[in-house]
Amino acid sequence: MFDYKLLSALAAVVEQAGFERGAQVLGVSQSAISQRIKLLEARIGQPVLVRATPPTPTEIGRRLLNHVQQVRLLERDLQSQVPALDEEGMPERLRIALNADSLATWWAQAVSDFCADQHLLLDLVVEDQTVGLKRMRAGEVAACVCASERPVAGARSLLLGAMRYRALASPAFIARHFPHGVQADQVARTPALVFGPDDFLQHRYLASLGVDGGFQHHLCPSSEGFIRLTEAGLGWGLVPELQVRDQLRAGILVELLPDKPIDVPLYWHHWRSGGQLLGLLTEHLARATGQLLVPF
């Protein structure tokens, strides 16, 4: 039989990226949470954590974290049926991984009413859309939004739609680098903006133009900062259309090659045994994103 105090210690250390913050969340000392992890490892006969910065789960640790995530959601279903079991009366927290551009654009509008109706708090983990699924695989989140269609074992995926990105730059940048008009083969020879090392959207865009090879670029791991740098003329970048409609109308940003957008599909991944809450959220997102994302 599982000792859920020990499993909760494991979840807190991984989710809070350290023993000290994990202990604070559980309201215990750092020594106490460390002892719980050691006791868990003694009982199962193998390590559940790699003691690094931040601590990461081992393979068996990931399996235990997946179990904890699903148990939390199933407990919520039981508490709704037997209110006396909910001793603290605290709102549910749901840990979700999603990409920064979704967080900066459509996500809040899609989930605000649902969170209010369901008395739900969100614990959001920001990852690039190409790698967000790793958080589910590691057992750190109950659901994620990412560009990968194939779910991890024990999970389901649902296509929500696509985010449309356009290659944009400031008028001053275009005048400086493309005085005779923008040509596809010239784009790779001008400075670009890239969100981070896992962001290959610019590579895909250039490949779609028939341009291969590397290109010079700034790294900017902030959706808002990405827009500010583009407006300031530091480089061209692929920006969500949802985020810059006002700038496009005002001429603050200009599309490099009109009518050559690139669409990135977004999939909602969630545990099959995630209980009623995840099921309701999945149904809600399927309806809400139909008005916010483009078909794919």
Summarize the structure.
By secondary structure, the chain is an alpha/beta fold. It has a domain at about 165-265: D-Maltodextrin-Binding Protein, domain 2, CATH 3.40.190.10.
Look up the CATH topology of the domain at 163-264.
Answer: D-Maltodextrin-Binding Protein, domain 2
The major β-sheet equals: 7 strands, mixed
Low-confidence stretches: none
Radius of gyration: 22 Å
CATH architecture designation of the domain at 163-264: 3-Layer(aba) Sandwich
Structural class, please?
A: alpha/beta
Distance between the termini: 46 Å
Shape: elongated
Mean of pLDDT: 89
- H/I helix tally: 13
- The CATH superfamily label of the domain at 163-264 reads Periplasmic binding protein-like II
CATH C-level class of the domain at 163-264 is: Alpha Beta
Number of strands: 11
Present the secondary structure layout:
Layout: H1 4-15, H2 19-26, H3 30-44, E1 49-50, E2 56-57, H4 59-81, E3 92-98, H5 100-104, H6 107-118, E4 120-126, H7 133-137, E5 143-146, E6 155-169, H8 171-177, H9 184-187, E7 192-194, H10 201-208, E8 217-219, H11 223-231, E9 237-240, H12 245-250, E10 254-255, E11 262-271, H13 275-288
Parallel strand pairs: 3-4, 3-5, 7-8
Antiparallel strand pairs: 1-2, 5-11, 6-9, 6-10, 6-11
Helix pairs in contact: 1-2, 1-3, 1-4, 2-3, 4-13, 6-13
Domain HTH lysR-type: 2-58
Family: Belongs to the LysR transcriptional regulatory family.
Keywords: DNA-binding, Transcription, Transcription regulation
